[in-house]
Each structure stands twice: as structure tokens, then as C-alpha cells.
TrEMBL record:
All residue ranges annotated as the YknX-like beta-barrel domain in the record: 266-335
Subcellular location(s) of the protein: Cell envelope
Name of the molecule in the record: HlyD family efflux transporter periplasmic adaptor subunit
Region (Disordered): 426-450
InterPro entries linked to this entry: Beta-barrel_YknX, UPF0194_transport
Coiled-coil residues: 163-222
Gene Ontology, cellular component aspect: cell envelope
Species annotation: Maribellus luteus
Length: 450
């Protein structure tokens, strides 16, 4: 009995071991995620947010008086400005310029005016004293001349040597008298020039004070016409000029009157997607303020040079999108949601991006039969792509099953469809040859020096 139980126990254990090994998955039965190649309409899109701006506008400029160098004001601060998008009539309030810079210069100008006035008054007094001394010297020279003439008359009976000495003294007195009169004329002109220079300095200081007084009237900026006010923005992602902004007195404008029939959406595309953006591409433009609105547009310009995002190492490129048509409800600076159509195919075969692998210049997929037992490493030619799928121009047909990850035996599989790769390579070589021929036809003229 015991022997029979032992035999039954052994048989049960062997059966369990057999079942375990039978149910254990092998490498041949490896579970792989797959997807099916689809065929149909295919669109490649790039999504971005932007901001409405007018391509053309009239400007409210910095008051002309601030451009006068005599003010010595090189920067001004906008103390207050009405909200962007506000509608104004001619003469309505737009902005106020902070008066601090004007106050500082006005105080300096008044101090300078006082100094120049004192210098002018002092120059007149000094000139009067100097010319008075000159006149006294002329009178003394005249008296000395008359004295010498009397001595000549009294020396008529004197010895010849005495008479000669008297004549020489008379000649000296006459010459000194003439020199003093000529020197007085020159000194008079010299002193007049000094006084004139001091007066000119005083006049300039007075004009500067008067100019600064007139600037106070220009601190309040009013609208020159009716329209919608837009903030002025410098190129290259410059900040908008608004309240508390500091700008140069040579700045082109403080605010704008955007022309609403020339609207554009300015957006910034990252460097990964910028190669897909081309001028003329169609754009669907959504307005965040009006979710029900959808406008048409097209890419009008693409920046040649990228720029860094603030507090980031990522580079972006400015792209301007022309808004087709106009809408009275739209206002400058409204946020837009832009969908740029970078590619379109009416009918194409496409597969998931995860299913396409690359090896240098070679692109390929892993085709799988329904039971998953046979896997083929197939070369493909890819076309346009979007965020999820890529078009397969050659190598894949509708309904093919593609693996979404590489199988474990990927290295042992050989490439199928190398004729596709050769075709792609031949087309690339032909295109390169044509470009070389075109470059050879357009050669720069050789520089020759004369």
C-alpha cells in the first residue's frame, strides 16, 4: 500500500513539473507591442501661441521738445498710460511722462542762469573800471604832452643840447599819447567782446530755462486722432512701452494706432520644429478671448537668427503669421493659438513614430506577421511627420503590422528592401549634382586691382 502511494506521489510531482515547463513562455513566444499601418488623409502640424499685432500703424511719438539737446534729458519714464486696446478720440488723454527728470534739469538750469547773470553783471562792472583806468591814463598822457610843449617854449634861449633834450621828451610824450588813445580803442573792443560773451552765456541759460518751463506742458500726451491705442514694442521680443517704462528721448514712439486690417500673429517656434516652418504655409488661428472664432492665416516671415528664452537655454525663432481678413472684435495683444500646417497628404500610408528606427542614413521598421513568429527588418523611405505618426513613402503598405520596439534578435536580422535605400541615395546624389552645377554657373567675378 505504501509503495503504491509513493508511486502516485512521484507521478503527481512529475505532472506538475511538466505543466510548469509547458506554461513557461519562451523567447519564441515573446510578447511584442505592434501597430497597424494606416492609410488616409495625413496632416503635419506645429502648435504655438502668439500675440496679435498690426503690421502697419500710425505712431504717437515722443514730444519733439524732448529731442532738443539743450534739455540734456536723454531718458524719460512713462508715469501713466491708458490700457492697450482703449478707443480714444482726438485730444483724449493717452499718457503722462514723469516730471522728475525735468525737475532735476530745471533746478540745474536755474542755478546756471543765476551764475551766468552774475558773470554778466560782473563783466560790465569790470569793463567800466578797466576803461575808466584807461581814460585816466590818456588824460595823464595829454597833460604830460602839454607840459613838454611848455618846456620847449621856455628852452628857446637854452643851450642846443638842452633844447634837443626837450624836443626828444616832447616826441616821446606825443608818441605815448597817441599809443594810449589807440590802446583805448582796442581795449574798448576787447571789453565789449567780454561783456557780449557773458551776455550770450546768460541768454543761452535763460533760453534753456524757458525751454524747460515749456516742457512741463508736454508731459501730458494726448491723442492726435481717433482710433484704438496699442502699446509700442521694440523688435526682438522687446518689452512693450507702458506705465513705468523708461525709454530714450530718441525712441521712435510711445504708443501706436494699429491698422486693424493688417493684423499679424507673432509667435516663437523652438529650434526643433523651425525647420518644418516655411513661408506661405496655412495656419488656423484661434483667439483665446473668443473661443468660438477661428481665423485663417499664413506664415509671412521667419527669423534667420534665433534667440534665447528668458531664464532658459532653449532657442526660439520669431515667426510672423498674416491674418487673412479682418474682424472688428479683434484687438492688439490678444493671445492667439496657432496651428501651422507644415505638411499635408490627401492619401498616405503612415505608421507610429515609435515604430521607425534609424541607423546612420538608413530608416527601417520591423514587420511582423499576425502570429508574431516571423519578423522582417524592412528599409523604409519616410516623409512628413506630426507629433505621433510619420508617412512611409516606400517599404510599408496599408495593414502591415509594425513593432513598436526592437526585438531581442534585432542584430541577427538582415535588411530587406535595400533597393529602397539605393533609390533614396541615387536621388540625393542627383540633387547634389544639380546644386553643384548651379553653383558653378554663378561664380563671383575675380577681383583685379588697377
Amino acid at each position: 500500500m505504501i509503495r503504491r502511494i509513493s508511486i502516485i506521489t512521484i507521478l503527481v510531482v512529475l505532472a506538475v513539473i511538466t505543466v510548469v515547463f509547458a506554461l513557461k513562455p519562451s523567447h519564441d513566444d515573446e510578447v511584442m507591442l505592434t501597430a497597424t499601418a494606416q492609410k488616409g488623409k495625413f496632416e503635419s502640424m506645429v502648435y504655438s501661441s502668439g500675440q496679435l499685432e498690426s503690421q502697419e500703424a500710425d505712431y504717437i511719438t515722443v514730444p519733439a521738445v524732448f529731442r532738443d539737446n539743450r534739455l540734456r534729458i536723454w531718458e524719460i519714464t512713462i508715469a501713466d498710460m491708458i490700457e492697450e486696446g482703449s478707443r480714444v478720440d482726438s485730444g483724449d488723454y493717452v499718457a503722462t511722462i514723469d516730471h522728475s527728470a525735468v525737475d532735476e534739469q530745471y533746478k540745474t538750469a536755474m542755478d546756471e542762469l543765476d551764475q551766468r547773470f552774475t558773470e554778466y553783471e560782473d563783466s560790465k562792472i569790470d569793463s567800466n573800471l578797466t576803461l575808466s583806468n584807461q581814460r585816466d591814463q590818456i588824460v595823464n598822457a595829454q597833460l604830460d604832452l602839454e607840459e613838454r610843449q611848455i618846456i620847449i617854449k621856455e628852452s628857446i634861449y637854452e643851450a642846443p643840447s638842452v633844447k634837443r633834450k626837450a624836443e626828444m621828451d616832447l616826441e616821446k610824450a606825443e608818441r605815448k599819447y597817441e599809443q594810449m588813445k589807440q590802446a583805448y580803442v582796442l581795449k574798448q573792443q576787447q571789453e565789449a567782446n567780454k561783456v557780449d560773451r557773458r551776455f550770450i552765456n546768460y541768454k543761452q541759460a535763460k533760453e534753456r530755462v524757458d525751454l524747460l518751463q515749456s516742457v512741463y506742458d508736454a508731459l501730458t500726451i494726448r491723442s492726435p486722432k481717433s482710433g484704438i491705442i496699442g502699446y509700442y514694442r521694440y523688435s526682438g521680443r522687446g518689452a512693450a512701452v507702458k506705465a513705468n517704462s523708461t525709454i530714450s528721448t530718441r525712441s521712435p514712439a510711445i504708443a501706436t494706432f494699429p491698422k486693424m486690417n493688417t493684423l499679424i500673429s507673432t509667435t516663437y517656434i523652438n529650434e526643433i520644429d523651425i525647420s518644418r516652418i516655411k513661408a506661405g504655409q496655412k495656419v488656423a488661428i484661434g483667439i483665446d478671448a473668443f473661443p468660438e472664432k477661428m481665423l485663417e492665416g499664413e506664415v509671412s516671415s521667419i527669423a534667420n537668427v534665433g534667440q534665447l528664452l528668458p531664464r532658459s537655454d532653449a532657442k526660439v525663432f520669431e515667426v510672423k503669421i498674416k491674418v487673412i481678413g479682418d474682424d472688428e472684435e479683434l484687438k492688439p495683444s490678444m493671445t492667439t493659438s496657432n496651428v501651422i500646417q507644415t505638411g499635408y497628404a490627401e492619401e498616405a500610408v503612415f505608421v507610429p513614430l515609435e515604430s521607425v528606427f534609424t541607423n546612420d542614413s538608413l530608416s527601417y521598421v520591423y514587420l511582423s506577421e499576425k502570429d508574431g513568429r516571423k519578423i522582417q527588418k524592412q528599409v523604409v523611405e519616410t516623409g512628413i511627420q506630426n507629433e505621433n505618426f510619420v508617412v512611409a513613402l516606400q517599404g510599408v503598405k496599408e495593414g502591415d503590422r509594425v513593432l513598436l520596439s526592437e526585438p531581442e534578435n534585432a542584430e541577427s536580422l538582415t535588411f530587406e528592401g535595400m533597393d529602397i535605400y539605393q533609390s533614396i541615395k541615387d536621388d540625393a546624389d542627383q540633387a547634389a549634382g544639380e546644386n553643384s552645377q548651379e553653383a558653378a554657373l554663378v561664380q563671383p567675378k575675380e577681383f583685379t586691382s588697377k
